[in-house]
Specification:
hydrolase; alpha+beta; eight-stranded mixed beta sheet; single chain; about 20% strand; Nucleotidyltransferase, domain 5; 27 helices; six-stranded mixed beta sheet
Length: about 725
């Protein structure tokens, strides 16, 4: 049974910020495993990394933690799916810090033409013994029969075999195995589309030993087409509409065209024969002929250029040309047979592949460099060595990453080649490309009109004001000479108080209390409204403002947030209690996994509250019942479900203790100015959340998905970013 991947990020409960370097550390390990000096990240752990189906990073351009909590209700999918969140340190150049500046792997001489390697690229005779081609075939030239796959090799590489359970109903070419070194070679290639049945043939090409095309036919699939794969196959719905030829017709024609001793040649020919539902005994597979170590395979496009000097599968063309591919595979087999293993090994294809990949990466990055920045070149000083880029390593190992972004955001560095004009286009391209790649970076944006610094300033003030209102409660009325110490003590049992003031503008005095954590304010409303405090029966309520009308909805959604699952808040602790004391006191609670004790970020002293995380939600509910009314060291405890994860608690504290808060009159002026654009912004955020939901649902199980709000770091101010991550499981949610 296949192992499922798992992600552990226990440190996130402390609300600590994750740096760009730590994020890079995670992505590098997820993408490469232990190769290229990649190691488990220091702040979280990926279990069974080798079983990851892929890594998908979604970057929300110019968005910060501020956006996530301002539009918390609109981000319905994000907050319900991802179990792990962390505050992200903002960066002036986020994409560079995300995947590195470049590579330290610089080839001394990058070949101009891969067909004519310099003498430096020729492998020494003493090194040839280690070449996979020599190890498999020896050094001497042999006839073609030495390179046809044996029955065991065909079974191992999923070729259709007579009598195999999966080949029921397959048609035999009726060719025998009486092949000789003079047997005729035929190149075969098919293009497939995805149907309700699976892969079905849509086009077949056959060429003879001289490269002449014998068959180039469109085929109508039997089942309904789900995906034409136009970018790869070149096949469209319109092309197949008039086609009458069926698979059975092609099978009959191939049987008639192939002589009894025919040897079929193709690149990963097993896929073509499986789609054709045909069995043929004599095959040469060029993906296996040009052997590599550890079961890896060269792509046909690379081999055609490196060995034959031919460009095939050009990006300017729509889809692959099966006749061109069949001819290339045939010529590669002929070259191998005529030249022999030693000559092929001396080409040093691994080195040529590395040189080609690095040249391609360097070319892409050079095209992104802004013009007019040649000061260093004018001084004739060599540029500093760039930070190693794990995307380079991916490309060198044959895993081409997908980088999709929006036009007009070139400065981000993400849009290397695949630019789109809208989020919808990016999504459509991602749904097609991401399943074919092991590593993808997808960049969405709200649009250039929503990244201006003054909009960020207005957004920040709105969020700060709303959080302040949610942390604030009004209590009263009290008698004229009420004991303020008694009030502070009673309300302090709900959690840490930041400020307490007496309101004297009313007929009878009230108190205004601002807490440091959301749970404390909510606990005060729930437990003390209607209670008798300082000799008076009081009412406890939050401020009544337009922004607070949806407060109860927001509280409920925070309570249901996936990150707060199994987490409870406990208040009324004595400050003299240490973390060790608390662990001992709470040790009797079933399935207790972690304890988080908030601290004052300036003094380092812990607060009179803590958060408890349980392995199971039911255990958390049982603990709530048990704790309420507990007396610990003479202090009565109060408890409720958690509302704010560690990173949010830290952020609230920083906002409340930041200097230079703007006055209310400035805030209301900005609300008036931004009200129209905010309505549009809410719609855009909701649509963005829907795009991510659609992309996420298309991912394979065991895919690590990371959604990043990069944050803002500019001359106008800084806003921390936010990361959400998880590994998709069978239920479509992110696994722990």
């Amino acid at each position: 049974q296949e192992k499922s991947c798992r992600l552990s990020a226990a440190l996130l409960g402390e609300g600590s910020e994750i740096s760009q370097e730590q994020l890079y550390e995670l992505l590098k390990y997820a993408a490469l495993g232990k190769c290229h000096h990649a190691a488990q990240p220091s702040w979280c752990r990926i279990y069974h990394q080798s079983h990851l189906a892929g890594v998908v990073v979604v970057v929300l351009h110019e968005m910060s933690q501020l956006h996530f909590y301002r539009f918390y209700l609109q981000f319905k999918h994000l907050r319900k799916v991802f179990r792990h969140r962390f505050t992200l340190t903002p960066s002036a150049n986020f994409p560079v810090s995300l995947y590195g500046e470049g590579t330290n792997l610089k080839p001394q001489n990058t070949p101009q033409g891969l067909t004519s390697p310099s003498s430096e690229c020729i492998t020494k005779s003493s090194d040839l013994q280690c070449d996979p081609i020599i190890q498999r075939y020896g050094e001497k030239k042999q006839g073609l029969t030495s390179y046809t796959l044996t029955l065991e090799e065909q079974k191992k590489n999923d070729y259709p075999i007579e009598g195999s359970p999966g080949c029921k109903g397959f048609i035999s070419t009726e060719c025998d195995q009486q092949r000789t070194d003079s047997s005729p070679l035929f190149g075969l290639d098919c293009e497939m589309c995805q149907t309700a049945k699976g892969n079905e043939v849509t086009r077949v090409s056959l060429v003879d030993a001289r490269g002449q095309c014998l068959l180039n036919e469109l085929v109508k699939p039997e089942s309904t087409v789900v995906n034409y794969r136009t970018r790869l196959s070149g096949i469209t719905k319109k092309m197949l509409l008039p086609v009458k030829t069926r698979l059975s017709d092609i099978q009959t024609r191939l049987k008639k065209m192939l002589p009894h001793d025919a040897v079929l040649v193709g690149h990963s020919l097993n896929s073509d024969l499986q789609a054709l539902e045909m069995i043929h005994p004599s095959v040469i597979d060029t993906s296996l002929l040009f052997a590599r170590s550890e079961g890896r395979r060269f792509k046909l496009k690379f081999l055609a250029k490196a060995v034959l000097g031919k460009e095939i599968q050009c990006e300017q063309k729509l889809g692959h040309d099966p006749t061109e591919d069949a001819r290339a595979a045939l010529e590669l087999a002929q070259f191998f047979i005529e030249q022999g293993p030693t000559k092929v090994a001396e080409l040093n294809l691994e080195m040529l592949l590395t040189a080609e990949k690095l040249a391609e990466v360097s070319k892409n990055k050079a095209a992104l460099q802004p013009q007019g920045c040649g000061f260093q070149e004018q001084l004739n000083e060599p540029p500093p060595l760039p930070k190693p880029c794990f995307l380079d390593c991916l490309q060198v190992t044959g895993q081409k990453p997908v980088l999709l972004g929006r036009q007009g955001l070139d400065s981000s560095g993400l849009c290397q080649s695949n630019l789109s004009t809208s989020n919808k286009q990016i999504l459509q391209r991602a749904l097609e490309d991401v399943p074919l790649s092991k590593f993808s970076i997808i960049q969405f944006s709200l649009g250039p009109e929503y990244v201006a610094s003054h909009l960020h300033a207005g957004l920040h003030e709105k969020v700060r004001s709303k959080l302040t209102d949610m942390l604030t409660i009004y209590a009263g009325p009290f008698e004229e000479n009420f004991c303020i110490k008694s009030v502070k003590k009673e309300f302090g049992r709900c959690g840490p108080i930041q400020s307490l003031t007496v309101v004297t503008e009313t007929f009878q005095p009230y108190v205004c209390i601002q807490y440091e954590v959301l749970e404390a304010a909510q606990l005060a409303v729930e437990s003390l409204n209607g209670a008798e405090v300082a000799g008076s029966c009081i009412k406890v309520q939050r401020p009544v403002t337009a922004a607070m009308l949806d407060c109860n909805v927001l509280i409920k959604e925070l309570e249901l947030d996936v990150e707060n699952e199994g987490v409870i808040y406990v208040a009324g602790l004595k400050k003299s209690l240490t973390e060790t004391d608390l662990r001992e006191e709470f040790s009797q609670l079933k399935d207790l996994e972690a304890l988080f004790l908030p601290k004052d970020l300036q003094s380092g002293k812990h607060r009179n509250c803590c958060f408890l995380k349980f392995q199971k939600s039911q255990s958390a509910m049982d603990a709530l019942e048990a704790i309420n009314g507990w007396t610990m060291k003479g202090s009565e405890l109060r408890s409720r479900n958690a509302l704010a994860p560690g990173h949010l608690w830290r952020w609230i504290w920083q906002m409340n203790h930041s200097n230079g808060k703007q006055g209310k009159h400035i805030f209301y002026e900005k609300v008036e100015q931004l009200s129209d654009s905010e309505q549009d912004l809410r719609k855009r955020v909701k649509k963005l959340d829907h795009h991510i939901k659609k992309l996420y649902r298309s991912l394979q199980n065991n895919t690590l998905c990371v959604v990043l709000f990069p944050g803002v770091n500019s001359t106008h101010g800084s806003q921390p970013g936010l990361g959400l991550m998880g590994i998709k499981d069978d239920e479509g949610r992110s696994a722990c």
